[in-house]
Amino acid sequence: MAILLTGGAGFIGSHTSVELIKAGYDVVLVDDFSNSSPEVLNRLKTITGKEIPFFQGSILDKDFLTQVFQENDIEAVIHFAAFKAVGESVAQPLKYYHNNITGTISLLEVMQEQGVKKIVFSSSATVYGMNNVSPLTEDLPTSATNPYGYTKVMMEQILMDLAKADADWSVTLLRYFNPIGAHESGLIGEAPNGIPNNLMPYITQVAVGKLAELSVFGDDYDTADGTGVRDYIHVVDLANGHALALKHNLTEKGTHIFNLGTGNGYSVLDLVKAFEAENKVAVPYVIKERRPGDIATCYADASKAKEVLGWTAQKDLHDMMRDSWKWQSQNPNGYDK
Ligand code: UD1
């Protein structure tokens, strides 16, 4: 029996593959490389010593997916495959709704046809919207402010409705906070296309000399230093959260929702200073206007994952800064040679 990872070559999918293999699972990966590189597969082989079964294609293609299920003994799915850039989703909403929502429905239909009714879903703290106050607990109302966020809210709803309609389904929704860091080998990491939208890859690309300076989006928030506060979590901790959530999903039917965060908040300037101190590299920055749609503070109440899954983040800010830099400095152009 194997676990199918859609979007398995992406940042979180690749790290989760490594931790699942370490935990004794067989994994099968599907990816269309729309936001990832085939080179990831070589790196995964080096790290794990295994040739991981891989199928290139889109989850929108039901014939392709059906074939993957027929050729492999799939027990459960971890569903990462989705577009995730907020700004692009505002500019191209149909692209986001089609890929993320139609893609998820296509996957769920094939799973249902094939009698595989266990799914762990890659959700986001973005579903807590603008109005909830941190620390955020899983029972808070969800909302969104942009098409990307709406796709996450809707995909969660679709999955919950499915589990309500058919008691055989096991649905686990994992709400990630801000994943950063990289595998300790420096062989896999986050490799965004073009100019990064997110803070950590922007910092590392400034540090490596690809970008001139960081723009800090606002220093007048109601936080200790005025810059935005987020719950940064090491991607390997996040990957281990998937391994434990999967174990739970395999035996517990119904819907289960977990935050995957550390419960600690750090500001933009905390990150810049921690990165410079850890790696002895300068990160020049300028203060700019607030970014539309940003909130002051967002961090998890991570107690449910601890109580139910026995999961807590093990790595601290030093580890995140060191490993993010190891990845970027060893791979200045990401997976492109
Ligand atoms: C963003 C998305 C969120 C998505 C998540 C994962 C927005 C509004 N939110 O979260 O929906 O789930 O990424 O992809 O885009 N910052 C700077 N300069 C930069 C980049 C960021 O100062 O160049 C600041 C931001 O204002 C924020 C913090 O850094 O305070 C973190 O930003 P980011 O890494 O983009 O994550 P989120 O906005 O939390």
UniProtKB/TrEMBL annotation:
Pfam families: GDP_Man_Dehyd. InterPro entries: NAD(P)-bd_dom (IPR016040), NAD(P)-bd_dom_sf (IPR036291), UDP_G4E (IPR005886). Its EC number is 5.1.3.2. Transmembrane segments: none annotated. Its cofactor is NAD(+). Keywords: Carbohydrate metabolism, Isomerase, NAD. GO terms for molecular function: UDP-glucose 4-epimerase activity. Residues 4-323 form the NAD(P)-binding domain. The keyword Isomerase applies. It catalyses: UDP-alpha-D-glucose = UDP-alpha-D-galactose. It is an enzyme of class 5 (isomerase). Homodimer. This is UDP-glucose 4-epimerase. It comes from Streptococcus loxodontisalivarius.
